[in-house]
Amino acid sequence: MRQGRAYISLVLTPVQWLVDLPAELADEVSDVVVDRGLLMKENARLKAEALLLEQKGQQLDSLAEENSRLRSLLNGRIRIPNEVTLVELIGVNPDPFQHQVVVNRGSEDGLFLGQPVLDSGGIMGQIVEMSHYTSRVMLITDARHAIPVELNRTGFRAIALGKGEPDELELQHVSDTIDIQEGDLLVTSGLAGRFPRGYPVAVVTEVTHDPGLSFTKVRAKPSARLDKSRHLLLVDPLADMTEQTDADAQADTVIVESVE
Amino acid sequence: MSQRQQGGGLIIFATFLCGIVLSQMPLPEFIGWARPEWVAMILIYWVIALPQSVGVGSGFVAGLVLDVIRGSVLGANALALTIVAYIAMTLYRRMRVFPLWQQSLLVMVLVGIHQLILHWIQMFVGYTGDSLLFLLPAAVSALCWPPIFIFLRRIRRTFYVS
Fold this sequence. Notes:
- The complex is a heterodimer.
- Chain A is of the alpha+beta class.
- Chain A has helices at about 1-10, 15-30, 35-75, 235-260, and strands at about 85-90, 100-105, 115-120, 125-130, 135-140, 145-150, 155-160, 170-175, 185-190, 200-210, 215-220, 230-235.
- Chain A contains 4 helices and 12 strands, in the order H-H-H-E-E-E-E-E-E-E-E-E-E-E-E-H.
- In chain A, strands 1-2-5-4-3-12 form a 6-stranded antiparallel β-barrel.
- By secondary structure, chain B is mainly alpha-helical.
- Chain B is built from 6 helices and no strands.
- The radius of gyration of chain B is 15 Å and the shape is globular.
- The interface of A and B includes residues 19, 22, 23 and 98 of A.
- Chain B: Belongs to the MreD family.
């Protein structure tokens, strides 16, 4: 069934492109027709931003080094950057009940079902359907989506459910005594093995303690720009994991040696 | 004669293709709910105009294409459009003599049925949503019906589709 669907969707790929054509053209036009002053201003802003990021990057290098040293001291896992593919959005599901987008790469480009999708802000969703040259991404706000997260500040783990509303997630089963505040950052916990660990997911916007309910109601706003980003990143958590198991194996051998 | 009919088939196919592309066009959030059901309306028009060549089968194929491109349950749109085509088939003699506004009312009912079936099937699979806004396209489609009817009739007459 899934295979048949992939083939029909292969036949319909030109239709997808056709739908995207006006947006693409508008992009091209606004790329060509642009004010020089505006460009210079943007250039200056980007340079300043690059400087800031470089400065952060310098710190990051030394911190990463230190982190990996400490981890190796603890015989822990070494985390490496994930493999990344850049894709472009070519369609949005018109059904308001479904939060899905279509991107311009498919199984021919080495994508796989369940692959995590990010933008510059954080996690956007995962691939749920694939054809040869296009694939469908379910966003984290879809009513059928759930993502394991942890609170960056305290490490408390929870599951963030999509509500079918744009720009809103809900944390499930947060007991009343948990330390959680507005403005807390939720990052992926990496449990369940689908999303890599440590990417930002959402920011807590509302914490309601209702004595009549057994759990605290926690709402959060996704940090990815779900309805605006046009260029998305696909990461490959499996590459990360194989690397980790290698590291594990090494760690194990080290332990064995030390025992011997 | 046969050549002309083949050309007519192409024209009908082209209108359906336009409908499918229109139904995929991205819209801003607040009018996302009010998207007219282009494909259903085009299907209704061709069933009224040429019930001998466009019917339940065309509805099924168009629905299948729509399912794949929209990512809904395979067969949901197909079933909904099949039923719409069937009802339109039984009504076409009456619809032809109705004035436009009365046709619009019938289109509202037909698209409403289409939306209900679609929503019902999607609910089975767990696309939740407790909003009744999914019926809004029926009203919007009724409003869009007169211009679309006139436009498609113009096309049919210019290209002698019969």
